[in-house]
Design a protein that fits this description.
By secondary structure, this protein is mainly alpha-helical. Helices cover 43% and strands 9% of the residues. The protein has a three-stranded parallel sheet. Strand 1, helix 1 and strand 2 form a beta-alpha-beta unit. The structure holds glutamic acid. The site of glutamic acid (GLU) has 9 residues, from helix 7 and strand 9.
């Protein structure tokens, strides 16, 4: 029988969760949804030296903002596998048992080497031109461990509480094969695999041991994670095998990297000229915060849509998908092996698509706080009309102000290029006549404005619409001119034209 789909997102609280991590969470979420399974949040905090305060809360907040909430795990649901924080699981002795099993079956061993001894080993090997020296089936023979020391000596060291780690005993020359859902069959020779530390000297398990124990105990069906874990996967296969759990192990899927826009390397949070975090993140070890997608004005639906298409495609040209739609069509067959280039301009385009789906009322509600911050109070109907007019020009709500502030504030200067090119000795007379035509209209609607403008043209000849725009708004471009004049209002338009005519 197929196992129930249970997937986990298992971040380490070592900093803010960046967009790559959110994408891993998203793919797990979508897969769980598609198969009616469970999506679990497990916090992998066994490396106490890298623990960052606030990171766990940030992860939870970020998943909530994205609308991809786990139904089990830290901060979510009332799961049957509590606790979901590895440091708490360690206290229950969960990992120790497995480490002991590996030791007693001869697949793991104690290593008593000090840091200095390990460094000296590395230096020795480097001097002998060994590339990337490791503690492995060959080098362990010259180190101080339970494979090289006598039984009595080992017992003595353990009894006297000398610090040790527990390492995986990797065979010297054996083929390790596994099937990755995204990459297919992967074959690695065990000579390439180091004797990974399973238990550290502080008694904490490493990621390698802890995630295997938890994936088994939490009945995880698929371990979906970043490509950076692919090199460790052969060691993981051995651990499952030596624990007698190879048949129960989750299927593996290693997601491709998200690359920076040039395609040369991973996105760097320090160098990126676009947000890298879902929410603004203040790292307690740094002074300046990193701005998040949320604070940059992105809608969570847009952000999720952007992430979904980084490394996966639907097999059609369609690009706009809600989380619900994604969770019906997502599958790993369409996840690529190669890295996915991130395009910041395309990301903005996605936001624009979602902005256009909003109702004018929603846009108005979002824009009102910006407007009142700028000192303008307008009634709802006016703000709605404004948003309707300007929305084609913006990708973010905060851009409404920049794109249309002249609706609320009279210009203080006039586009110099347009004036130099188009303003001549006839202009004043011409626009004074237009102004008079406007003054004589009894109504002030788009139709009446259009009509009086055309009447003026019939009497005076062609009138440059861009000049009229500049007189009223100061700028050379914008939405439909007459619609905008109607919105600005009769009196205000007249006042602005008078001011302009007196200045130019
Ligand atoms: N704790 C690991 C990380 O933060 C999780 C890897 C996994 O999903 O197995 O990348």
């Amino acid at each position: 029988m197929e196992k129930r789909v249970r997937v986990r997102f298992a971040p380490s609280p070592t900093g803010g969760l960046h967009m790559g991590g959110v994408r891993t969470a998203l793919f797990n979420y979508l897969f769980a949804k598609k198969h009616g399974g469970d999506f679990i949040l497990r916090i992998e905090d066994t490396d106490q030296t890298r623990f960052v305060k606030g990171a766990e809360e940030y992860i939870i907040d970020a998943l909530k903002w994205c609308g991809i909430e786990p139904n089990e795990g830290v901060g979510f649901g009332d799961g049957a596998h509590k606790p979901y924080r590895q440091s708490e699981r360690k206290e229950l002795g969960i990992y120790q048992k497995y480490a002991e099993k590996l030791i007693s079956s001869g697949h793991a061993y104690y290593a008593f080497d000090t840091e200095e001894e390990i460094n000296a080993m590395r230096k020795r090997l480097e001097a002998a031109k060994v590339v990337a020296p490791q503690y492995n089936s060959v080098t362990r023979q010259n180190m101080r461990n339970s494979l090289t020391l006598s039984e009595d000596e080992v017992k003595h060291l353990l009894d006297t509480k000398v610090k040790y780690v527990v390492r995986l005993k990797v065979p010297r020359n054996e083929e390790i094969r596994f099937n990755d859902i995204i990459r297919g069959w992967v074959t690695v020779n065990s000579s390439q695999v180091d004797d990974k530390v399973l238990l550290k000297s502080d008694g904490m398990p490493t990621y390698h041991l802890a995630h295997i124990v938890d994936d088994i105990e939490m009945e995880i069906s698929h371990a979906v994670r970043g490509e950076e874990w692919l090199p460790s996967a052969p060691a993981h296969i051995l651990i499952y095998r030596y624990l007698g759990l190879e048949n129960e192990m989750p299927k593996l899927a290693h997601l491709p990297l998200i690359l920076n826009p040039d395609g040369n390397g991973k996105i760097s949070k320090r160098e990126a000229r676009f947000p890298v975090f879902p929410l603004s993140w203040q790292d307690p070890r740094e002074t300046a915060p990193y701005i998040g997608y949320k604070e940059a004005g992105y809608y969570p639906e847009a952000f999720v849509n952007i992430l979904a298409l980084l490394g996966w495609n639907p097999g059609t040209n369609e690009e706009i998908f809600s989380v619900e739609e994604l969770s019906q069509i997502f599958d790993f067959e369409r996840v690529h092996k190669s890295g996915a280039k991130f395009d910041p301009e395309k990301a903005k385009w996605f936001n624009q698509q979602y902005l256009r789906k909003k109702s004018d009322q929603e846009l108005a509600d979002a824009f009102k706080p910006v407007l009142s911050e700028k000192g303008h109070l307008r009634d709802n109907a006016f703000v709605i009309e404004f948003c309707k007019l300007v929305k084609e020009k913006v990708q973010f709500v905060h851009e409404f102000w920049e794109q249309g502030k002249y609706v609320f504030e009279a210009p203080v200067e006039y586009d110099a290029k347009v004036i130099t090119k188009k303003w001549n000795e006839n202009s004043k007379t011409l626009f004074t006549s237009v102004l008079n035509k406007f003054k004589s209209t009894s109504e002030w609607t788009i139709e009446s404005i259009t009509k009086s403008f055309h009447e003026a043209e019939a009497e005076l000849g062609k009138i440059d619409m861009q000049l009229l725009r500049v007189l009223v708004t100061g700028v050379a471009g914008g939405p439909q001119l007459f619609d905008m004049l109607a919105l600005i209002g009769k009196e205000e338009v007249q006042k602005r034209m008078e001011t302009a005519l007196s200045k130019l």
